[in-house]
Amino acid sequence: xxxxxxxxxxxxxxxxxxxxxxxxxxxxxxxxxxxxxxxxxxxxx
Length: 45
Known about the structure:
Radius of gyration: 20 Å
Largest sheet: none
Structural class: mainly alpha
Shape: rod-shaped
Distance between the termini: 64 Å
Oligomer: single chain
């Protein structure tokens, strides 16, 4: 494999990892908010 091709592939992998980190952290943040809201609703009732 040529070094240009290897660099391009490495960049693609790094970018996809970066994107998946962003989406995963968003999902976890939403889960935490949902749990927090459920607990607050239970406490109000």
